Amino acid sequence: MLKVGLVGIGFMGRGHLDIYMQLEEEGFPVKLVAICDVDKDKFEGKFLPGNLDVGNLKYDFSKYNLYTDYDEMLEKEDLDYIDIALPTYLHAEATIKALNKGIHVLCEKPMALNTEECQAMIDAAKANNKKLMIAQCLRFWPEYEYLKKCVDSKEYGKVVSAYFFRGGTTPRWSYENWLLNKEKSGGVLLDQHIHDVDVINWLFGTPKQVSTVGRNVFPGSGYDAVSTNYIYDDMAVNAQDDWTINSKDFGFAMTFRVNFEKGTLIYEGGKLTVYPHDGKSFVPEL
Ligand SMILES: NC(=O)c1ccc[n+]([C@@H]2O[C@H](COP(=O)([O-])OP(=O)(O)OC[C@H]3O[C@@H](n4cnc5c(N)ncnc54)[C@H](O)[C@@H]3O)[C@@H](O)[C@H]2O)c1
Questions:
Q1: Which residue has the CA at smallest separation from atom 32 of ligand 1?
Q2: Rounded distance between C-alpha atoms, residue 80 and residue 30, angstroms
Q3: Residues near ligand 1 with C-beta < 6 Å?
Q4: Main-chain phi, psi angles of 14, to 5 degrees
Q5: Is residue 283 assigned to a domain?
Q6: How far is the CA of 7 from the centre of ligand 1 (A)?
Q7: Whether residue 98 is found in the same domain as residue 148
Q8: Are 230 and 265 part of one and the same domain?
Q9: pLDDT tens track of the chain, all 286 residues?
Q10: If you take atom 24 of ligand 1, which residue's CA is the nearest one?
Q11: Among 117, 135, 153, where does a domain finish?
């Protein structure tokens, strides 16, 4: 049985909490034993809604050992791994502390704010011979896994062009508004676009060059809308992100359109459709 400590139960940490409850119910050998959040109001169920439907369950916090101090949790608990859903500016420090205590780490994306911090995290994992995993969740998202399978198998030939999008309402729920502070979140480029950066590298390898056009809307937030061209020899690849789509009922969207020599995959509105160029379109069972 893996014993887990979860740090940060804001918007995404609550998503993780829901999943631990589900995994326990379904009998998986993983048990959430401790939770840490600096804001003790969270343990009284005082949450702000985010742009996705997570964290809607009723929580019984009496089941867990609760902490408002991360160091104390590391000191007192006997954990197999720490799940870090803290604001991005705290990822490196919290990760390295856990690894140095001999505890494996699952850390939310983006890994950290710059390559120096990322390298220090990798070095700590290696030095302590512990696992460090970054929660780049699209690699486990069925529609993206299907896309990866088509790219690798060349079932529809080679990729000709690809377009990815994510975006939605402005994130205004975060702890001390860290998400709209460029120094703490890296803006939309690091906070959201990173998912498509990861997918594009995973699918197609490292591009020869990248070129991004960014637009700032909110003071101090960095870029709030970006469009990036990924330069490869024989494919036209572009990804966009925009967290200023503030219509009341929009929420959040992620989409892709990847065109192969002999077919096109379009993921939109939560549905993947395959359009073979020589036959009828279909929705694959995933
Ligand atoms: N995988 C995804 O698709 C996805 C989606 C959203 C967010 N995220 C990532 O999850 C992380 C958290 O984002 P969020 O939207 O949940 O932010 P949030 O502000 O809603 O939550 C952060 C939580 O950390 C707590 N916290 C702050 N400082 C702390 C400290 N020193 N010790 C203990 N707790 C502390 C806050 O009280 C808050 O509850 C970010 O890195 C974000 O990029 C990932």
A1: 38
A2: 10
A3: 7-13, 36-39, 42, 70, 85-88, 90, 108-109, 135, 137, 173-175, 191
A4: -70, -35
A5: no
A6: 9
A7: no
A8: yes
A9: 999 999 999 999 999 999 999 999 999 999 999 999 999 999 998 887 666 666 556 799 999 999 999 999 999 999 999 999 999 999 999 999 999 999 999 999 999 999 999 999 999 999 999 999 999 999 999 999 999 999 999 999 999 999 999 999 999 989 999 999 999 999 999 999 999 999 999 999 999 999 999 999 999 999 999 999 999 999 999 999 999 999 989 999 999 999 999 999 999 999 999 999 999 999 999 9
A10: 8
A11: 135
Ligand 1: residue whose CA is nearest its atom 37 = 39
Domain termination site, one of 108, 135, 162: 135
Residue ranges of alpha helices (H) inside the chain are 11-25, 70-76, 91-100, 115-128, 142-153, 182-185, 187-191, 193-204
- Indicate whether 44 and 20 sit together in one domain: yes
Ligand 1 centre from 173 Cα, in Å?
A: 10
Helices 142-153, 193-204: crossing angle, 10 deg rounding: 30
Pull the structure tokens for residue 86: 């803290």
